[in-house]
Amino acid sequence: ASVSPDQLVAQMPWLARAATVLADAATLSEGAEPGGALASAVALRDVRERVWESQLTLVDAGVSAPDLVGGIVFTSNTTTPLPTWQGFRPMVALARALPDSRLTDDDERVREMVRLGNAQRFVLQLQVDEFAAWSSASLRMVRGGFRSSAWDHSMPIDATSLGLLFLSESVRGLRVMEAERRGATREATKQGGTREMEGTPERDR
User: Fold this and answer.
1) What is the Rg, in whole angstroms, of the alpha carbon atoms belonging to the chain?
2) pLDDT, tens digit, 9 for 90 and up, residues 93-136
3) 173-185 residue pLDDT tens
């Protein structure tokens, strides 16, 4: 409530996380399951749209800079309009929002998965492997960490922690949706079997 819309992205992912934790705590205190009404849902959805509007596409990056595709460009607070690890901040919140029905409707999930897939591509582009560790003294010490950008091989702790958070939240979201899908399939199968039995003569049941 006290942060202007233009500054909300800078408070991610912690502000979004706090909002969902408080909403879940409120429902738990009432003896209900987590997933209560999210008062800030509209604001968080607006943040998501602002972030995706700033995501670089192949058209934006051009054939000369494919490594930047999927990154987030914040032109309002930087003199270098190129994506860096700072874009990980909102990405973590958006990955967590994917399986949350309060923030993502069923018919929005495919679109959000595509956008997050492009973001994952950029994040993994900054993760250090044996090919990106040429400037480091020890591959063992840097493998799996995250660089500041495609051109800056420094590895801030925040970049690595947020990069790993984003990837773990992405995997968690996919697992949650897969569990929901399997549950829905089992329920549909069960209901179908029940209806079939209801139409079967008693002697044949």
Assistant:
1) 21
2) 999 999 999 999 999 999 999 999 999 999 999 998 877 666 77
3) 999 999 988 887 7
